[in-house]
Amino acid sequence: MRVEKDGRRRGRLLRSLRAGLIGVGTALTVLVAVFLLCLWWPVAQAPLPDPASTRLIRNARIIDVQHGRVGAPADILIRNGYIARIGAGLQVEADVPILEADGRYLLPGFWDMHTHAFQLSPQLHFPLFVAHGVTGTRDMMDCPHEKDSLIACVADKRRWSGWAAAGRMTAPRFVQVASFYFEDPAMTPAQAAQRASVYQRRGVDALKVYNRIAPATYRHLASEARRLHMPLVGHLPKAISLEDALLQGQHSFEHGHLMVRHCFSDAARWRAGALDAVDPVLLAERMVDGHDAAACARGFEALRMAGSIWVPTHVTREEDARATDPTFLAGPSMAYLDPLSRWAYADDLAATAARYPGTRGAAALQRYFDHGLALTAAAHRAGVTVLVGTDTALGGVRFHDEMALLVRAGLSPAQVLRAATLDAARAVGRQEQHGSVEVGKRADLVLLDADPLVDITHTRRIHAVLMAGRLHDRPRLDGLLAFVRDQARSPVVWAKLVWGFLRSPVSAEL
């Protein structure tokens, strides 16, 4: 009887295992089928603006970003995407649509001068930019090859800019596109020159350098950039001093680290690698405590004389300082992030918290962040061109945070608005058509409910955005925000993101 019972028990076990395996196999088959269906399924298109590129804006107070003042109420006539006339009581044909501004505040669209575009940015990022008044972006990392499944390439960006200008896509303009970064310390000068030529033929605007490029390669690349008439932009490589970079003609510098490290009294030894073994918390403390005011002043003057720009992206250092703050990842803006981006945010914050542990680490990061803000204000007072950039997946939202941080640092709202508009256009040579509300310029505009010269947080009170004269009114802007939230939850978007990430050679670099 025992043998018979054991046999029946084994039979039941085998049948259960077989059923379980069949169930697991069925579930895996269903998951694979759903995944493949999501890859095949087309992505949704963001809501478009009103198609008319000719319209009259009646009774708007134009903010003069050049001089930081508000004008008397005026009418602005837009024809075919350009500002045609500005005056009082303008008359138009009966079929021209009219936007009643009712005394609201009109200024040029904002430009985010440090962004990164992905293949799915038309669903996840571009509508968020436009909904927050950002009509131009400077893209700081092209793909390394002609095509990529994750990173958007220069051909994609040119096409999207054209579609945005024609009203066929809701997206900002790409005002400059930088190459994939030159980072490999083993790259030879000849290899760097060859890559620079490839990027130029592909249509990239600027060459981007990063942290670990070797000095000889950096200098040869800078020479090639001058020969190719392409600006050299990006990080200040660790082994290169600010003075040397300016002598080599580097046109822009990114992130708040720039002056904290340059103004460090032991900067030369840090650049030489002599402090690599120092605990990160202690090093951050030493960089703040070892501030060399004279070196800073010389650096500011060198930047001013060279005409180079600085995009400090303080929101990225703020995120470092909030690495252990649970409210950051619980904030309402996280609803705009897809799961992959949300994971990346959490992973970055966790890595920062691990590198700067405990209350001492958190205090060191906060002091480093505050020190960077103070240096930015000092640089601006010294005549350095400081621009507004975010370097985050929440660029539209965080752009307004960055402007507020610059005011907190010590810039006036008028100075920040100029940095976000006219100074940005001048930095990339586009001031003839962008950067201010003037006749002959493109009608990329933002209409605000309150005066941002009084309070910089009023830039968040957006009544309407115009892209090439085409109107996103408040209901349309709300629709863009809802669209991004929906796309961030879309299995179709998730599947395409994961598949693009797995197939992209760039993912190994990020």
Quick structural gist:
This protein has 20 helices and 16 strands. The protein is 47% helix and 15% strand. α4 links the parallel β7 and β8.
Overview of this protein structure:
- With 510 residues, this protein is an alpha/beta fold.
- Helices cover 47% and strands 15% of the residues.
- The chain folds into two domains: 1-40; 108-488, Metal-dependent hydrolases (TIM Barrel, Alpha-Beta Barrel), CATH 3.20.20.
- It has 20 helices and 16 strands.
- The strands form four sheets. Strands 1, 2, 3, 4, 5, 14, 15 and 16 form an eight-stranded mixed beta sheet that branches. Strands 6-7-8 form a three-stranded parallel beta sheet.
- The N and C termini lie far apart (65 Å).
SSE class:
alpha/beta
Evaluate the radius of gyration: 26 Å
Named CATH architecture of the largest domain: Alpha-Beta Barrel
Question: What is the helix fraction of residues, given as a range?
Answer: 40-55%
Keywords:
510 residues; alpha/beta; TIM Barrel; 8-stranded mixed sheet; 3-stranded parallel sheet; 20 helices; 47% helix; disordered N terminus
Topology (SSEs and partners):
Layout: H1 2-40, E1 55-64, E2 69-79, E3 82-87, E4 98-100, E5 105-108, E6 110-115, H2 121-124, H3 126-131, E7 134-139, H4 154-165, E8 173-177, H5 189-202, E9 207-209, H6 215-228, E10 232-234, H7 242-247, E11 252-254, H8 257-262, H9 267-271, H10 280-289, H11 293-306, E12 309-311, H12 314-321, H13 326-329, H14 339-355, H15 358-381, E13 385-386, H16 395-409, H17 413-419, H18 422-427, E14 445-448, E15 462-467, E16 470-473, H19 474-488, H20 491-503
Helix pairs in contact: 1-20, 5-6, 10-15, 12-15, 15-16
